[in-house]
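Need residues for this backbone.
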């Protein structure tokens, strides 16, 4: 039971420290929608999503009002669309994305994820058709998010898919040039993607999941930042324990909301994803947490060690609080969505190479990073390959969400607005990776894949 002091402290977290439920995400299986006739399949997709998620937004708003806990987003994730569309006799997958988009609009959710393909070991015809359709599908829809899993510790890295996705990202940026290439913010390229991630743009409803499920993502960088101010100058074990205790309380709140939402929607409760997902608002930054630990600027020497401590303590606190912690859970470092990361990148202290090093010890990877619009597709593919290699070798989830901003160069910035924030254009190495990417094939799985 919570005592009065803890209740007041939690209220202060919500009121003054940006604590929120970042998302309630309903995962929905669409395997039953597979049809030879693509038009019939699209109708079934729309009908099933609307049938299951018709009350999702209302329930979220009711819980928000009754409990006084902000719930920022209500979202849907579905079975990777390449698996569903494979049964249809068509080479045009864009209508499937549009069916998802219409269902999302009808249900009133912010985003719907799952326009996705899993190609870590090879591409089926359906996988390739979906990947080639991504630029048109994401540019012509409002709420659809896509993802592609190109590697895993068990399978290695599919370099043919990596090569294709370099061109895909460039094409998507060009199709959304009027918004600075913002279409790329809806595409995530993974290694070791998880099946129960509630966060966009990478959410999809995995093949091993139930018919429908409720997953909740909790975020509280401001709460952690406030907590560690109280232990300034104290040893690292005290710092880690403080973060762990704070994460415990945040996860408890997330589990309460998740169970309540699952009950009201008559849907099984899946997981709580405790991720320090920042926003552009001052006081809601992961970078500022690292600086509060004693770094003058995020990106300087010591940043990777500080982030490793933070990520580990968050996970330990979450696991203590709930037996259903899942998703990605840890600290996110999306540049455009974090006020402190933006400032560090603008100062030149935080570079793409340093961000890559930081992804070795945190959740996800190179996220919401704007690069020059004339960056070659092969360089984008090489960046994807580097990040996938980190995930593959370290048996962790890594991802890339790059925006090659059309017409922009180093020294410029691109504005996305809302939670996506703004991003300074970060330099990439000018030296070519063309011959490396042109090899194609598959980078074999590492020796640690042979665990059976």
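Answer:
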């Amino acid at each position: 039971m919570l005592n009065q002091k803890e209740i007041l402290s939690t209220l202060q977290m919500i009121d003054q420290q940006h604590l929120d439920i970042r998302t309630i995400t309903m995962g929905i299986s669409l395997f039953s929608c597979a049809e030879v006739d693509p038009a019939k399949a699209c109708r079934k997709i729309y009908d099933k999503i609307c049938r299951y998620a018709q009350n999702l937004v209302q329930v979220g708003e009711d819980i928000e009002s009754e409990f006084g806990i902000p719930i920022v987003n209500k979202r849907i994730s579905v079975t990777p669309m390449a698996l569903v569309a494979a049964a249809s006799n068509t080479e045009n997958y864009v209508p499937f994305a549009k069916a998802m988009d219409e269902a999302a609009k009808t249900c009133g959710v912010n985003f719907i994820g799952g326009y996705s393909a899993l190609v870590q070991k090879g591409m089926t015809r359906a996988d390739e058709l979906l990947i080639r359709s991504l630029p048109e599908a994401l540019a012509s829809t409002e709420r659809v998010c896509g993802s592609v899993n190109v590697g895993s510790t068990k399978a290695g890295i599919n370099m043919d898919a990596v090569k294709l996705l370099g061109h895909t990202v460039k094409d998507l940026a060009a199709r959304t040039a009027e918004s600075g290439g913002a279409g790329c913010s809806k595409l995530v390229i993974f290694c070791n993607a998880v099946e129960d991630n509630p966060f966009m743009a990478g959410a999809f409803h995995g093949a091993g999941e139930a018919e429908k499920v409720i997953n909740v993502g909790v975020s509280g960088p401001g709460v952690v930042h406030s907590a560690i101010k109280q232990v300034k100058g104290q040893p690292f074990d005290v710092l880690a324990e403080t973060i762990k205790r704070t994460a415990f309380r945040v996860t408890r709140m997330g589990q309460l909301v998740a169970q309540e939402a699952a009950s009201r929607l008559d849907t099984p409760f899946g997981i709580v994803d405790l991720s320090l997902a920042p926003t552009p608002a001052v006081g809601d930054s992961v970078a500022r947490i690292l600086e509060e630990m004693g770094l003058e600027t995020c990106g300087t020497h010591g940043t990777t060690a500080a982030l490793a401590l933070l990520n580990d303590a968050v996970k330990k606190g979450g696991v203590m609080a709930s037996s259903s912690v899942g998703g990605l859970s840890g600290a996110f470092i999306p540049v455009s969505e974090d006020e402190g990361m933006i400032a560090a990148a603008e100062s030149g202290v935080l570079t793409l190479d340093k961000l890559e090093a930081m992804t070795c010890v945190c959740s996800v990877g190179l996220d919401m990073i704007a690069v020059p619009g004339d960056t070659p597709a092969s360089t984008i593919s090489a960046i994807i390959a580097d990040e996938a290699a980190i995930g593959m070798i370290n048996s962790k989830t890594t991802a890339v969400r790059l925006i090659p901003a059309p017409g922009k160069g180093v020294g410029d910035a691109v504005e996305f607005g809302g939670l996506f924030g703004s991003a300074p254009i970060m330099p990439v190495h000018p030296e070519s990776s063309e011959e490396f990417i042109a090899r194609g094939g598959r980078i074999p799985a590492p020796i640690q894949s042979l665990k059976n």
